[in-house]
From TrEMBL:
It comes from the Bacteria. Residues 459-474 have a biased composition (Low complexity). Coiled coil: none annotated. It comes from Frankia nepalensis. One of its GO terms (molecular function) is pyridoxal phosphate binding. Residues 438-449 have a biased composition (Gly residues). InterPro entries: Aminotransferase_I/II_large, LL-DAP_aminotransferase, NHTrfase_class1_PyrdxlP-BS, OxyQ, PyrdxlP-dep_Trfase, PyrdxlP-dep_Trfase_major, PyrdxlP-dep_Trfase_small. This is Aminotransferase. Gene3D superfamilies: Aspartate Aminotransferase, domain 1, Type I PLP-dependent aspartate aminotransferase-like (Major domain).
């Protein structure tokens, strides 16, 4: 078929398009390993994706059914009841005060993460500071907006993403670290968006919202917090989340989303309202995850893994000192599927992410499976990544580039310093309603957390604060390619010297520390 000029219509149409080159969808690359794992006599235990497997809470199901007769268009802004419930939850659980008018429901937070740079008006020539290792969608959102993703403080940044607790590492940012980023951003008129979807899943540490007055001084100007009900309430299938923070930014997003028809169905809004008003089902779900976490952490430790960070969130971040794809292949041989750390950037090249989201009966088989796990390969620090090796064919040293300069080199036996078998800490775990670790720092390390978690006198030593690590400026210069340079929040260490002092809280804001949300 030809157009008026005689050129093929498809070519004529394509010539006016600005195509976005995106990376392969990571989980498509696990298919061969999933097939291998499924052939195990005990069957497959899929720990590769953080998708809930437990029932939707009864209180939520009842609310959904009661609102099923919903023939009209829903409100993009959300019902007043939903916005009130979200504001109440923020105050009750996070110590954050927002006006309900500054709450905007979103169709699952992944949708917002992928499109926030575009919806905020960023475009070609812009930059988005994203964490690493991290959920790939932060980078994808920058690319969809034709922006450059960078991995540290850099000129031209228009949006900074925070993620605490982190996916995949489970690390919680300290108040000082978050305050430093907020100070740096405000000095430059840069927006900070904080993805807080795991904030109610604290184990050895508790995360603090970017909107808490200890972080922002009581002013939400230039700040957005993103919250999901997928993990805390098992509502991944409902696509239910919300964004809140700076009222001016929320209004800007609302107007754009009205024109785009980005609205949550009315029955789902009713379900969200019920979920946000009820804390008991969250405590029940936390207990399920805590039990699975204990079983999986012990099994991994006995099998020679070190679990690093993992102080909060839905995952264990584990390594045995080999290429992440080699570990995926070894675990598939005993019927366990995990995500390679290479999915999350260069900093994850020797790690795997182990989700807590398999049924209890399947998780109970993991210790026996670990007893049959092949030993790690002899490779020292190498980079996992693409092309993906076939199942059963771990990459060789000749197929992989050398590690980045930020890596300090192997320790004895070819393993990175601090790597080795470890066990999860024992003793009382923080409860859902009772204080545990201090709210302004990390857990005080432990034999299972690796050398990178050793605290300083201030409560935490950032991984990049030491000899041989590049400066923030150097990390920003290198940031044109994913994975070069140290993890992004290593670069906050320098910022904290300038911006780490506590801001003066606005009158009327509570001075007490954030409530325990575990």
């Amino acid at each position: 078929m030809s157009g008026p000029t005689g050129a093929p219509t498809s070519s004529r149409l394509a010539s006016g398009r600005a195509r976005v080159r995106l990376p392969d969808f990571p989980w498509d690359l696990l298919a061969q390993y999933k097939e291998k794992a499924a052939q195990h006599p005990y069957g497959l235990v899929d720990l590769s994706v953080g998708t809930p497997v437990d029932p939707v809470p009864a209180v939520v199901q009842h609310a959904l059914a009661a609102a099923a007769d919903s023939p009209g268009y829903p409100l993009t802004w959300g019902t007043p009841e939903l916005r009130d419930a979200a504001a109440g939850w923020l105050a009750r659980r996070l110590g954050v005060l927002v006006d309900p008018s500054a709450v905007l429901p979103v169709i699952g937070t992944k949708e917002l993460v992928a499109h926030l740079p575009s919806q905020l008006g960023l475009g070609p020539g812009g930059r988005v500071w994203v964490p690493t290792p991290a959920y790939p969608t932060y980078e994808v959102g920058a690319l969809l907006a034709h922006c450059e993703p960078v991995y540290g403080p850099a000129d031209g940044v228009g949006l900074v993403w925070l993620n605490s607790p982190s996916n995949p590492t489970g690390r919680c940012l300290t108040v000082d670290e978050m305050r430093a980023v907020v100070g740096w951003a405000r000095e430059r008129g840069v927006i900070v968006a904080s993805d807080e979807c795991y904030i109610e899943l604290g184990w050895e540490a508790r995360a603090v919202s970017v909107l808490h007055p200890d972080v922002c001084g009581g002013s939400h100007e230039g700040l957005l917090a993103v919250h999901s009900l997928s993990k805390r309430s098992n509502l991944a299938g409902y696509r239910a989340g919300f964004v809140t923070g700076d009222p001016a930014l929320v209004r800007e997003l609302l107007e754009l989303r009205k024109h785009s028809g980005l609205m949550i169905p009315g029955p789902v809004q009713a379900a969200m309202t019920a979920a946000l008003a009820d804390d008991m089902h969250v405590a029940d779900q936390r207990a399920r995850y805590a039990n699975r976490r204990a079983v999986l952490a012990a099994a991994l430790a006995v099998a020679g893994f070190t679990i690093e960070n993992s102080e909060a969130g839905l995952y264990l971040w584990a390594t045995r000192g080999e290429d992440s794809w080699a570990t995926v292949d070894a675990l598939a041989s005993v019927g366990v599927l995990v995500a390679p750390g290479a999915f999350y950037g260069e900093a994850g090249r020797q790690h795997v992410r182990v989700a807590l989201t398999a049924p209890d009966a399947q998780v109970a088989t993991v210790p026996e499976r670990m007893a049959m796990l092949p030993p790690p390969g002899p490779s020292g620090p190498r980079t996992g990544g693409y092309p993906v090796p076939a199942a059963g064919q771990a990459p060789t040293a000749g197929q992989r580039p050398d590690p980045p300069v930020a890596y300090g080199g192997p320790g004895p036996g070819g393993q990175p310093p601090g790597y080795g078998p470890g066990v999860p800490r024992t003793g009382g775990q923080p409860g859902y309603d009772h204080p545990g670790q201090p709210g302004h720092g990390h857990a005080q390390g432990g034999p299972w957390m690796g050398a990178g978690s050793a605290p300083s006198a201030q409560g935490h030593t950032p991984h990049g604060a030491g000899p041989g690590h590049p400066s923030a400026q150097e990390a920003g210069r290198r940031a044109g390619q994913r994975g070069q340079g140290p993890p992004v929040f290593d670069n906050i260490a320098g910022l904290a010297d300038t911006y780490g002092a506590a801001p003066a809280a606005e009158a009327g804001w509570p001075a007490e520390p954030p409530p325990d949300i575990r």
